[in-house]
Amino acid sequence: MNKNLIIIVLMGVSGSGKTTIGKILxxxxxxxxxxxxxxxPKENIKMMKEGKPLNDKNRLPWLVKINNLxxxxxxxxxxxxxxxxxxxxxxxxxxxxITIPIHFIYLRGTKKIxxxxxxxxxxxxxxxxxxxxxxxxxxxxxxSLTININKTKNEIIKIITEEIF
Length: 165
Hints:
Layout: E1 7-11, H1 18-29, E2 33-35, H2 42-49, H3 56-73, E3 79-82, H4 88-95, E4 102-108, H5 111-120, H6 131-137, E5 145-148, H7 153-164
Helix pairs in contact: 1-7, 3-4
């Protein structure tokens, strides 16, 4: 296994820019990007479309899938993953038995700014009515790189590049 490999997990509530930043970072660094939303079981997507918040039990199989994705991907390449990772125990599940560095980068924003973003978003299963439930369970990381989302995309990418790569 290459010792230079790293995993970047962009975390935060829905609408914080994880996918947007992840895709840009992936392209700039020429490493794969994965959106954890693509790995939700159908039942979870149905719940969110109906405006029902997920609980720990609903999230567990999804988090295990993300952990397995990291294990598989890290055998050959660094990668960027957009994953809400709202609670400390979720982050523990995601990084369980991973032997290469995982950097959680918290994209932090106010409820007001994120709600405005969600109102403009099209074709996403996450109902904006669930934003409060995400903030309610959010446990902000204390030892992760935290970036305020009121910065431009380029500023955010520059911070990540300078701090991590």
